[in-house]
Amino acid sequence: MKFLIVGLGNFGASLAEKLTNQGNEVIGIDSSMAKVDALKEKISHTICMNATDDFTVTGLPLKDTDVVIVAIGEDQGANVMATALFKNLNVKRLISRAINPLHEMVLKALGVDEILHPEEETAERWAKKLCLVGVVDSFELSDDYSLIEANVPAIYAGKKIGEIDFRKKYNILILTTIKRTETQGNLGKSFFVNQVQGVASAELILEEDDILVLYGANKDIQKFLNNY
């Protein structure tokens, strides 16, 4: 089989070597030349490139690749962006690495075929200051970028995502939405469960009780949160 592994850290490099040793053809990709050089004699092919750049990624032999594995672990933003890019290119089978519950939820929303948990780690959530009204949950991807869950501002309830144009107006991405559904338990007690709605489309109409999953720079997210 032919594998393409994006991210040659400890997990990605180890997996690439094992697959190569089992007789598979493996293309290893990383943005670090040092990591690429360390594996160039150990796996079939190595490429130093940015896997979030659609121009360079489209030049890869994706039609001939059986499985694409996004093993990026340190940079969750790059992981999500690379995963979304490969999903949009309709690769045969897409597997991605999840670091925490929100990250896993986003990957599921993107429609990956399988999610990897190479190490067991405590989900390190960080909370926004109390003044950031509307935030349900958040994860800091780096000093400058975050993934957050936020309630739909009242001014946008009933509008299509495409009408609002979050990318142009706020420079943020709406990855998916979550609906809270009331469910009846075995003992007759009702409770709410969160249901991820899949990749957000321009035609999706936002409802007042929806939860948005946003990705962007902290300064741009703050601008959006000023609507509350």
TrEMBL record:
It comes from the Bacteria. SUPFAM superfamilies: NAD(P)-binding Rossmann-fold domains, TrkA C-terminal domain-like. Gene3D superfamilies: NAD(P)-binding Rossmann-like Domain (3.40.50.720), Regulator of K+ conductance, C-terminal domain (3.30.70.1450). One of its GO terms (biological process) is potassium ion transport. Transmembrane segments: none annotated. Residues 1-116 form the RCK N-terminal domain. This is Trk system potassium uptake protein TrkA. It comes from Lutibacter maritimus.
